[in-house]
Amino acid sequence: MTDTVQAEVIMSFLVSEELAFRIPVQLDFDSADPYAVRLTFDLPGDMPVTWAFSRELMLDGLSRPSGEGDVRIEPAGGGHLSDVFISLQVGSERALFRVSAPPLVAFLDRTDRLVPLGAEEVCDTLEAVLDRILTEASKAS
């Protein structure tokens, strides 16, 4: 059995300097995959789109520019717990979002209470051992 953490945040989709749309985004963490967080964009009329990336990347992006390639996260301003920019890129297409940092911090805090950062491998190993024990027990019955 796995445990999950979920939260909904409102992000601003920055189309241009003059145009932005506020959209709800679902944040998900599953202890079965403790290294990752998922952002799901479920807009009316469109199929939901989910991006998965490192939980550590989200944490690092709260205080400094982080990420290479398709996902980049960085503080929007110099203040403590300011807004955060999240940039998602596929090929030459890029989407830029702005979100308040405190809801991300609260989400990450909840994930850390479930699976502490740095303890992911221990959880993976424990889960594998438990699965093996339960499988062997069911075969013996």
UniProtKB/TrEMBL annotation:
Keywords for this protein: Cell cycle, Cell division, Septation, Sporulation
Main location: other
Localization: Cell septum
GO cellular component, as recorded: cell septum
Annotated Gene3D superfamilies: Sporulation-specific cell division protein SsgB
GO BP, one annotated term: division septum assembly
Cell cycle keyword on record: yes
Claim: Translocase is one of the keywords in the record: no
Annotated family: Belongs to the SsgA family.
UniProt name for this protein: SsgA family sporulation/cell division regulator
Protein source organism: Streptomyces benahoarensis
